[in-house]
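Methods, example record. To illustrate the input and output format used throughout this study, we show the complete record for Amino acid ABC transporter ATP-binding protein. The sequence lines were provided to the predictor; the line carrying structure tokens was produced by it.
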Amino acid sequence: MVEARGIHKHFGQLHVLKGVDLVVAERELVFVIGPSGSGKSTLLRCLNRLEEPSSGSIMVDGIDLLDRKTDINKARQRIGMVFQSFNLYPHMTALGNVALALRKVQGKGKAEAEARALAALERVHLADRADHYPGQLSGGQQQRVAIARAIALEPRVMLFDEPTSALDPELVGGVLAVMRELREDGMTMVVVSHEMAFAKAAADRVVFMADGRIVEEGPPAQIFGAPRHERTRAFIGQIERH
Ligand SMILES: Nc1ncnc2c1ncn2[C@@H]1O[C@H](COP(=O)(O)OP(=O)(O)OP(=O)(O)O)[C@@H](O)[C@H]1O
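The corresponding predicted structure is encoded as:
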């Protein structure tokens, strides 16, 4: 579903990604971990070209994202993204926020957009809050609306960048539960997060990044239980102590 090869990214003098290869199979959940500043977010943002890689190649669902001939707005419809901040319009209801994406991005009429938006809100268990404004929802509920907005567009792959980092601890579980359901429904997912318990329980593969490179990747049992590289061991040891 995703095939990124030899990705380099420079921000001026700063060489942030130093030749990353990331291949994600259909229905796979890949979880990316690593120290702060190791390039996790930058890699994720390259996968839908929110950041332009300095070099390398990226195919998503058979589309060459870096080909000048590719209509990037159309390609992005296949790639849902959920950020740490929910970015909902405060003056629009939950339904309105989700329907807007369908109308603007896919040109759906009002009735169809709202029907699909409601179905997406049902998938995140918020159909009963469809007419609430973001300010009337908890952070966790707002994040689930943001997830509904992404899945309403029926993406082929979803990218999650620290989706629970802005939430109070008691609100994290609801968002992770929705992510698990998406995974069980067969969604292909790449997740950058510090929720290691979620990685252990739900990831097919864990990728450990340090200093702009993938140091080690494998099933959660290997990465958390028997890491092969010294840097992975040190990182896992550090987080397990916290
Ligand atoms: N737009 C930008 N301009 C300049 N430097 C940037 C930009 N975005 C990221 N960086 C730098 O690139 C490096 C990697 O950042 P990135 O956010 O990808 O790391 P990360 O592994 O996701 O970290 P964290 O876990 O703290 O979010 C950092 O040194 C960061 O300061």
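Annotations derived from this record:
The mean pLDDT is 95.
The pocket of adenosine-5'-triphosphate is lined by residues 11, 14, 16, 34, 36-42 (CB under 6 Å).
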